């Protein structure tokens, strides 16, 4: 099934995700010690804006790193000495390293592949087993690549960023290996039969490359080809066809995008015995131009610019972000449409709606099997799964049994050969269960693996509530707390949110939150604010650009509702968020410092006047706005945390965390914010992990440490007892 999901996974502002698969090298960071920057021209000339902390944007400069070391030492001294820190860190490490956790399967040919980390394999093993072996309680795995051994031999801190293996034999793979967890990766060709790197094979130096197989001797490649080859966002602007045994410089240029584009790329799709070659151009985060290649000819697929396109079994699938009027009929935003690709290319526009959105529903994901199709849908943020079986009279839609108030992740067993599917299901109090089902059988999916319970959930109650935002919109949130919670404001409460990029926060199992917060008696709350995808494109678009404040009003409304209901008090209410959620934290700090007792702000955006000039920032202007456009700059200026800090205000004590190796959201955001707060005499903590990329941690040890810092800080500030 043709999809750009791996690419978007790398680019999306995820709070704490798994290491992504590539796309390019960022522009160099500023190297000046201090500087004066001028705002772009507006209707009236703006005065110069002094930024005395611009020098902190020099990521690896001696002076900034000395500043980081000093801040880190202060934070480590306080939090490592706090009661319970060491025990929590060690417990989280055991959870992340657990040998009983589900090995997530990916089927390639006759093998089930898995990438695995634990205490004896901190960087990880790429391994495989037959399905029969995989189903056993303790499978015997065949190791394909030992990343720890490779890192030791090459004296590199390799972090796994995935493998793309060539269909149908899967004997050759393109490995993406990151130094320290950054998005930028080194590309290596790997032989899964000989279990070794291919001598003289396809290799690329460190970059945010986009590389896909065409055939055994050819790849589509977008990378840093030199000056002018990247977009303003730092991703590939040019896609080439590269033949085995030739130099990269001689690769044939197929397509060039604009520097203002987000990214371009090429890929071959193998679809039910047919091959399609695609060139894609993304002018912005949520728009895409799709070209079908035939030799040197390119056919543009006629579709709405902001519609997400994919192909499955000769069907063109269009996921609409805006309403689309076609031949007198209007298809709603959020719908998933299908049409035979051949007919569509011939000009016919007879569409079938596979998913019809309602006011309280949205499409979470979709995937093709050999003869059937699946959708994962949200209804008031709870997951449901449907199989769509094709008949002579169209698709028949059948619901699969899943638990209520749950989060479900579904993917094909092998869409080329099978109608089987994997189903991973969990909720706030029940750990993940992995099942294997069949779209052609009416029997319930068979449970194959189950994660152990990593925290004590007995006695916890999960409820969904709705708060009323400033403009009257009802905004949902989940509350997880002990039954018979005393509504006297006495319980420390942690509220998390994200609210961006059409990403949904669903009711899934959070082992770290359970062990670090819920077991100790705290209340945990997940906010489903606008900007996310919980209710489809309209929910997302409601908080774009000049309307961004709506997301922040939603979060404030939930916080105020918790206080009004006497779940907690302002002094015992803590908040936490990362990436775009880190921006949310910065806005809460500056707009409502009176409402919160403590904040954890992770890998954040905070300087919204310069974010588009830092690393991948330009790719998010469709979400936030363009600071170089006067009207959009004015909207950004109203909420940009760095510019809205004021003297004479007491801000909630905050722990800021980031990563030196984060080449997606520049660590300068957090550094400069902290420097300014310290200048204002604020009491805060800052910790910068020297590795980890945008996920904040390069391995389970670092992940456990960073999470222990966060929960120890929150517990200390809000008065949560140490267990």
Automatic annotation (TrEMBL):
Signal peptide location: 1-17
Region Disordered: start-end pairs: 19-48
Keyword Signal applies: yes
Entry-linked SUPFAM superfamilies: alpha/beta-Hydrolases, Peptidase/esterase 'gauge' domain
Low complexity bias spans: 30-41
Domain Peptidase S9A N-terminal: 40-434
Keyword Iron-sulfur attributed: no
One Pfam family it belongs to: Peptidase_S9_N
Chain ranges of the Peptidase S9 prolyl oligopeptidase catalytic domain: 517-719
InterPro entries according to UniProt: AB_hydrolase_fold, Pept_S9A_N, Peptidase_S9_cat, Peptidase_S9A, Prolyl_oligopep/macrocyclase
Bias (Pro residues) ranges: 19-29
Keywords, comma-separated and alphabetical: Hydrolase, Protease, Serine protease, Signal
Protein name: Prolyl oligopeptidase family serine peptidase
Native source organism of the sequence: Polyangium sorediatum
Organism phylogeny: Bacteria, Pseudomonadati, Myxococcota, Polyangia, Polyangiales
